[in-house]
Known about the structure:
Layout: E1 4-12, E2 15-18, E3 29-31, H1 34-43, E4 48-53, H2 54-59, H3 65-76, E5 81-85, H4 91-100, E6 104-107, H5 109-113, H6 116-124, E7 130-137, E8 140-143, E9 148-149, H7 154-164, E10 168-173, H8 185-194, E11 199-202, H9 208-215, E12 221-224, H10 226-229, H11 235-243
Parallel strand pairs: 1-4, 1-12, 4-5, 5-6, 6-7, 7-10, 10-11, 11-12
Antiparallel strand pairs: 1-2, 2-3, 7-8, 8-9
Helix pairs in contact: 1-3, 7-8, 9-11
Amino acid sequence: MVFEVIPAVDMRGGKCVQLVQGVPGSEIVSLDDPLAVALDWVSKGAKTLHLVDLDGAIEGKRKNAPIIEKIVRACREKGVSIQVGGGIRSFEDAASLLELGVSRVILGTAALQNPELVKQLSRAFESSRVNVALDAKNGKISIKGWTEECAQTPVEMGRKFEELGAGSLLFTNIDTEGLMQGVNPVPTKELVESVSIPVIASGGVSSLADINTLKKTGAAGVVVGSALYTGRFTLEEAIVAALGD
């Protein structure tokens, strides 16, 4: 299995942004043309893109859906995989994206509030196209754009969603997300070792060494945002680092 570096294209208000710990108004990056940003990552070697509708995640309304559709159509022609999350609250939301050509839908709040949705989607589509996002703060799951904390742990929920048919998990460590202070591999490693489906890591990558640290957890890949946008390293350098030991 090739460990993959996946650039993040997070959208809010029609712009490509990077927030600190998901807090609206904390933008450290704000770019006017998300489609151009996405295509630039593809030109630099990205094989998969991570698209998030932050308005959807925070408010429950997928305001950036038209832009996401443009990116999916443009990248599909280039053979690039797209995973999309943020505001996907129903079977119809997910199905429309999968039928559009999205490789994987990422279910967060909806999966936690309605676990049967994961089972329904995995039966209607290939399970590999159904990803569940497990975002954790202080070792507990957070939902609704990281504004509400649940009692469950990532390991508990990871096992549950694997049983329900999820084909992969996206694990974000909110404690390190957006702070550019490095990663804590322990929670990711615990989750990887508790399930048999692929786990994609996210949160806190600030150096090429962080990429190798997460690779050693057994994760299938890593989503990188702020470090790429602020020039800590290039995507090309990250891809080379991911190929290392």
